[in-house]
Amino acid sequence: MKSNRLRTNLTVAIIAIGLTALIGIITVIEVLRGTIYNNFTSMGSNTFTINEQRVSSSKKIGKKKRSSTSNENNPIKLDEALRFKTLFPFPSTISTSVIATNTSILKRGAKKTNPNIVVMATDENYLRVAGTNLVSGRNFNALDISSGENTCILGNALAHKFFNSPENAANAFIALGDARYRILGVMESKGASFINRMDNMAIISLQNARQRFSISGKTFVISVSIPDIKYMSLAIDEAEGMMRNVRKLSASEENNFTISKNDEIANSLIDNLKFVTLSASIIGLITLLGAAIGLMNIMLVSVAERTREIGLSKAIGATNATVRIQFLSEAVIISLKGGAIGIILGILIGNLLSLAFHSPFVMPWFWIGIGISICIIVGLLAGIYPALKASKLNPINALRYE
């Protein structure tokens, strides 16, 4: 190995690249999985949401056909959401919200954001149902919601951008679009995420959104938080019946809305990650197959180059088993060396995403064990044929080999 450093290192690099691809992507997926769970469980496992119907469907029950209409024709309107909030009899905290726009610009003095700020219109219960606390200032109250004044609650990253700290932002003013808003409070940091964008979000009241944004055609989301999770199924059944009544659905019609629990949404997203895991595994295994072929080729070349050395070893007493172990050990060591480098690089590269999302450092122990096992198997499979070939050399012919 020392006398053929370049060839050995190239083989190590091939194996390392395969393991880096496999462990790196698996680590990224673990980070994403943890981020998804954290984002949805932050709202509480005792929360469910009522949203528009996502798909069209129809089926026959007996002689009657029950049908549901697509969400394009059946958004949940504000009056329906408010009626549900008023009539729902189950002990709970209910919030109504809608995304007024996701292309807003915030400005203060010479500073301004890109046109990608989400403006959420909510009621006074939204932060409590969403499991979000304020680090400074206060939440909306009933008067703020009913008056429709230009007041808002700012995301943590935006407060730092414009005011350096959340404490400085409370009761200050900021321009949202072409209007001047007073900041009531600043939300705690939720971290960067492809799901949760609350750090770069501004929350305004529903009444204010009706005055300044076109939200009449948008669908509203109803979030329901119940005090005890053991009553979740009962609360969902009650909510389904109430929502059917609010939307005036007959017994022959299917629901034209969906009810989702946070853990169901998270599990649905995580199920989709399984396809990415499968793809990553296939890519890594194909790369490792190429590495195994390369390692076998190098070992065969090594046998040819060291024929006289093998003959000399056998002439002074080395057995066939000794020669086999020598070449097998060399193949396994090269494979494990490449595997160790690949695992370390894969973990470090994969956890770059955890730094961006402010999530814990991830160590995919299961896949690390699989990676090490694969390296040992690759080394054995790549080295066994060259080792057998070397052990069968006739010492007299080997010593004469040029």
Runs in which pLDDT lies below 50 for 5 or more consecutive residues are 55-72
Rg estimate, integer Å? 32 Å
Number of domains: 2
- Mean of all residue-level pLDDT scores: 79
Q: Main beta sheet, described?
A: 12 strands, mixed
Query: Helix fraction?
Result: 40-55%
Overall body shape: elongated
Beta-strand fraction estimate? 15-25%
Total count of helical runs of at least 4 residues: 14
Question: What sequence of helices (H) and strands (E) makes up the elements?
Answer: HEEEHEEEEHEHEHHEEEHEHEHHHHHH
- What is the β-strand count? 14
How would you explain this protein's 3D organization?
This protein has 14 helices and 14 strands. The protein is of the alpha+beta class and 402 residues long. It has two domains: 5-40 and 266-400, no CATH class; 75-246, no CATH class. Strands 1, 4, 5, 6, 7, 8, 9, 10, 11, 12, 13 and 14 form a twelve-stranded mixed sheet that branches. The chain has a two-stranded antiparallel sheet with strand order 2-3. A hairpin with a 2-residue loop joins β2 (57-61) and β3 (64-68). α1 (5-41) runs antiparallel to α9 (262-305) and α9 (262-305) runs parallel beside α13 (365-391). The chain is elongated and about 100 Å long. The relative contact order is 0.19. Residues 55-72 have low confidence and may be disordered.
